[in-house]
Design a protein that fits this description.
The protein has 269 residues and is an all-alpha fold. The protein has a single domain, classed as Helix Hairpins. Helix content is 83%, strand content 3%. The protein contains 4 helices and 2 strands, in the order H-E-E-H-H-H. Strands 1-2 form a two-stranded antiparallel ribbon. A hairpin with a 2-residue loop joins strand 1 and strand 2. Helix 1 packs antiparallel against helix 3. It is rod-shaped and about 145 Å long. It starts with 6 loop residues before the first helix and ends with a helix.
Length: 269
């Protein structure tokens, strides 16, 4: 009885091992071109069928690569928006610092003027009390004993105090207006800061949300790429065994494999 050649047993075993990690039923892959079905692998043993299945799989790989390239461009653009947002934050903070510095100067001027007003008011009050005391002492003397020059001096002093009181009243009114202006500017500065922070937060949330959405899509795309690359690897292994040689070169397969390796490497770093 003649013996069967060793490769008679090796080929079915190799095919079984190759198919062990592959899907039995057709798998669904979604690309921007629509829903695609990976060709069935089980039971495919003829070279023409394998070649056709490989062509269909490579077409899906090509669509996935196009989608990933588009997502990578969107990711880069969104990252650019994040960089621009960082610059906007710096510029906004600088504007707020300048506005606050200007407000602080105006507020300090008001406080200095208010302190000076208080000092003038206290000095005038002391002057009033002194004038009243000296006037009362003069009034206490009999009319014949009053020095006319002293009477004139006391009266001129009273007139001077009256003018100073009018000036202080005008200063009080100015300070009241300054107070209202400072408080209005304080509220405006607080609103400017709140509006700026809200605007920046909305922009940041938008960029973060957009970036997160792109990352989710890229993850799904790469997961589908992994599935399709594996599918192509199995088909190429089967075709190599059927042809008793190496499967024909495939630039799209090589590109997809390299892209997948780079992505998986970046996830582990």
């Amino acid at each position: 009885m003649s013996k069967l050649p060793l490769n008679h047993f090796v080929l079915p075993l190799a095919l079984a091992l190759a198919l062990a990690g592959s899907p039995v039923a057709a798998q669904q892959i979604t690309t921007s071109h629509g829903v695609r079905m990976l060709p069935r692998i089980q039971g495919v043993t003829e070279a023409p069928q394998l070649r056709q299945a490989l062509v269909s799989t490579e077409q899906i790989l090509d669509e996935l690569l196009q989608d990933i390239d588009a997502l990578d461009r969107s990711r880069s653009a969104t990252a650019g928006q994040g960089t621009a947002l960082t610059e906007t934050v710096k510029r906004t903070n600088l504007e707020l610092e300048r506005a606050k510095a200007a407000f602080d100067q105006a507020d300090q001027r008001y406080r200095d003027d208010l302190a000076a007003f208080g000092q003038r008011q206290a000095a005038q009050e002391a002057d009033v009390q002194a004038q009243i005391a000296q006037g009362a002492a003069l009034e206490a003397l009999p009319s014949a004993q009053r020095d006319i020059n002293e009477v004139l001096r006391i009266n001129e002093w009273a007139a001077k105090i009256g003018k100073e009181r009018e000036a202080l009243e005008a200063e009080r009114n100015r300070l009241l207006a300054d107070h209202d202006r400072v408080e209005t500017e304080r509220a405006a500065l607080a609103k400017q800061r709140a509006d700026a922070e809200a605007k920046l937060k909305n922009s940041r949330d938008g960029v973060v949300g957009q970036f997160g959405g792109i990352e989710d899509k890229r993850k799904i795309a790469y997961q589908q790429l992994r599935t399709t690359v594996h599918h192509a690897e199995v088909l190429r292994a089967q075709l190599s065994q059927v042809l008793a040689g190496k499967a024909p070169p495939s630039p799209v397969f090589d590109m997809a494999s390299a892209k997948l390796r780079a992505w998986e490497s970046s996830r582990h770093n």
